[in-house]
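Q: Hi! First time asking for a complex rather than a single chain. Here are the components, and I think there are two in total. Is that enough to go on?
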Amino acid sequence: MTTDQTQAPAIRVRGVEKSFGDLHVLRGVDLDVRAGSILALLGSNGAGKTTLVRILSTLLSADAGTVTVQGFDVATQAADVRRTISLTGQFAAVDEVLTGRENLVLVARLRHLKNPGAVADDLLARFSLTDAGDRRAGTYSGGMRRRLDIAMSLIGDPPVIVLDEPTTGLDPQSRIEVWQTVRALAAGGTTVLLTTQYLEEAEQLADRIAILHDGTILQNGTLAELKQLLPPATVEYVEKQPTLEDVFLALVTEAPTSTRKEA
Amino acid sequence: MSTAALADTSALTGRSLRHVLRSPDTIITTAVTPVALMLLFVYVLGGAIDTGSGESYVDYMLPGILLITIASGVAYTSYRLFLDLQGGIVDRFQSMPIARSSVLWAHVLTSVLATIVSVAIVIGVALLIGFRTGASVGAWLGVAGILVLFTSALTWLAVIAGLSAKTVDGASAFSYPLIFLPFVSSAFVPTETMPGPVAWFAENQPVTSIVDTVRALFAQQPVGADIWVALAWLVGILAVAYGLAVARYRRRVR
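A: Yes, that's all I need. Here is the structure of the assembled complex.
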């Protein structure tokens, strides 16, 4: 993908500050996310990732600074921003009492789409949830639930999607499924902002990586650019041991698919 | 309200009605306590109570029992709202382009509908144990109107509680004083039998005027000035609770 310098960023954050009482969570955040790219926002717990995401999605107002999404200001054009952006992950819940299908129909109705039932069936099929569609979301496994959550946020084809820690608490297989979904989204032209505390996830998915620390963006660049910040690599010979994850994935993916259960 | 706001409210009301239908115990437990109280008062205590009105005791105390039913029913509204806020589903709704107030209105409409069902169950049991009324259609509509108004006023109070609560228990605890209020009113015994200060409180708190109005409507008697006092209380509580609830919601979700 080539960088198109003339295109305005899909998300533009300038000088955003936010405090809760004496706690200065964000102290002047600047960040751009190019349209159609995946940006991973890395940070430890409490770094302010969720606060920034809540400001982006109009759930919280900033104390200072400006945020625009596709050119709409979150403070003054909140309704337009809400039409543009979709939120999923850590705190955007699914309704556990409703079935998977009812969750999707509800969101389709709230987005005033013409044929909510058809939209729901289509997404159930896309996310391999058709068989589970009539079961309550409360009975879903972690991976299925996260897929439902992402499916809900795709309704209405929003151009910008925010995934707040989308794989926290998932097993390795489900995590890879979510990664595939995110890659497919970006390939389709959706702008993705992803927050994560897993460095590997950022390496795997992101076009650019921004590190949020102490309320500001410490570094922002491609993986290669970030790696150049450290002294050049020295060559060492080490015996290549498979990681436990390699072993686990080799064992479970070689098992016949018919015996694999999603539970 | 605009068409979009109505559509959003109806989609979200459908959602919370499903919640109620899938845990019907909330409607049943709402009706069980008032029914037990009614049986206790009619068959155990009622024989010793002289209401001085000549009507059967179940006829005398049913209005108070209905208010208790409503007060315990709205506790589930603050409970459901609290869980929605805590579980993050409200964040999801508010990050979408929906009418801002539709989340609250959906809970309020669900509360009114669920409470009507509980009240109907209690009236059904009352009829079984001897409650009789010759009330006209107009009088029944009057009773229904007052009860719906009472439910709406208490529901908006429940919304404030649900928005302000820090724990699940706190979310429903606000209803205990409301459930208790009919006991210190004309609902079960005439206020003249109470000692001075208690009688004064009972005479001047909202439940007495509401109970007296509903009782008069059921007994086909003139409602007198009571209905205006009752309506003033109900509209007043409704307006104040609505204003506070909406202000609190705006502060909370922006």
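A: DSSP finds eleven helices and no strands in chain B. Let me know if you'd like any chain examined more closely.
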